[in-house]
Amino acid sequence: MDISFKQVSHTYQVNSPFEYHALKSLDFDIKSGQFVAIVGHTGSGKSTLIQHLNGLLKPTSGEVVIGDYRLKADEKTANIKGLREKVGVVFQYPEHQLFEETIEKDIAFGPKNFGASDETIQARIPKILEAVNLDVALLNRSPFDLSGGQMRRVAIAGVLAMEPDVLVLDEPTAGLDPRGQQEIMDMFYKLHHEKGLTTILVTHSMEDALKYADHVIILEQGKKYLEGKPEDIFVQQARLKQVQLDVPEEIQFLMDLEKRLGMTIHYEKQSVDDLADTIKHRLGGGQ
Ligand SMILES: Nc1ncnc2c1ncn2[C@@H]1O[C@H](COP(=O)(O)OP(=O)(O)OP(=O)(O)O)[C@@H](O)[C@H]1O
């Protein structure tokens, strides 16, 4: 689904001593099928922004358009339930929201609430378990018997069970070890391509934004600071530094290489192996 933010502002606790302007005149478009990373340091407005994607929050002014749905202040959004079915949100630490006695019931909870029949849900479950790499034998176990990483996969399975068109991921790897982080991100990347999803990833990892996203939006104090292709955004070291963001490791490495050896390699999402080959070749003869 295409998504548009048109001059969106959001103010918390209007007309109170705690009034806070969290989003300020945000304008951007996300095309159906894009993988977009939203980055910015703490308090820049990322969580506020994504809560506008399924109508948990509404703009104080401006409008958000998501497919055929429109969110606008003082206007009742037609069929908000339909919007919440289409936009799946994986919140931070989603495993904290597990509550059913069995894994199967937890995965089925969302679609059941939205009126899907038992047969429909049963038909979806094996494919979802495969996607999140959980064993079918676990279905009747309590989610609370699992490891933290497995619990997160159950919670993600519950969101996927709704078969959303748009997947919103709020720091989906927070608290996982490096291997778990990569497994989860690779899983989302695969799902994104296989299911033709529109994916919106909030992350503190510049490396993940560079590796997985085809578009990056940087927020600073509720405003859009930079927007574009990751390989164009993440070479702007001085501008990133101004908002306390780092250059991803791969790009930092190529910048150091240029400084030390005068070797210029333009980063175009090459793998580490391809970069190593290019460097060896340039150094003369693959040693
Ligand atoms: N309910 C609220 N009432 C008042 N201010 C709020 C409320 N929720 C968030 N804020 C403020 O809005 C600003 C943006 O918060 P938000 O959670 O969107 O930022 P963020 O970029 O997601 O931060 P983080 O990376 O820490 O999750 C922060 O300064 C925050 O304190």
Description of the structure:
The chain has 287 residues and is an alpha/beta fold. It folds into 2 domains: 3-247, 3-Layer(aba) Sandwich (Rossmann fold), CATH 3.40.50.300; 248-287, no CATH class. 39% of the residues lie in helices and 22% in strands. A 6-stranded mixed β-sheet has the order 6-7-8-3-9-10. A 4-stranded antiparallel β-sheet has the order 2-1-4-5, with no helix packed on it. The longest helix has 18 residues, at 178-195. 36% of the residues are buried. The model has no long low-confidence stretch (mean pLDDT 93). The chain binds adenosine-5'-triphosphate. Adenosine-5'-triphosphate is lined by residues 12-13, 18, 20, 22, 40, 42-48. It is a peripheral membrane protein. Residues 3-246 form the ABC transporter domain. This is Energy-coupling factor transporter ATP-binding protein EcfA2. Belongs to the ABC transporter superfamily. Energy-coupling factor EcfA family. It is an enzyme of class 7 (translocase).
Write down the CATH class of the largest domain: Alpha Beta
Assign the structural class, choosing from mainly alpha, mainly beta, alpha/beta, alpha+beta, or little secondary structure. alpha/beta
Share of β-strand residues: 15-25%
Q: Per CATH, which architecture of the largest domain?
A: 3-Layer(aba) Sandwich
CATH superfamily of the largest domain: P-loop containing nucleotide triphosphate hydrolases
Bound molecules: adenosine-5'-triphosphate
Mean pLDDT: 93
What's the shape? globular
Helical content (DSSP H or I, runs of 4+): 25-40%
- Detail the poorly predicted runs: none
Whole-number count of domains: 2
Subunit structure: Forms a stable energy-coupling factor (ECF) transporter complex composed of 2 membrane-embedded substrate-binding proteins (S component), 2 ATP-binding proteins (A component) and 2 transmembrane proteins (T component).
Keywords: ATP-binding, Cell membrane, Membrane, Nucleotide-binding, Translocase, Transport
InterPro entries: AAA+_ATPase, ABC_transporter-like_ATP-bd, ABC_transporter-like_CS, ABC_transpr_CbiO/EcfA_su, ECF_ABC_transporter_ATP-bd, EcfA2, P-loop_NTPase
Pfam family, one: ABC_tran
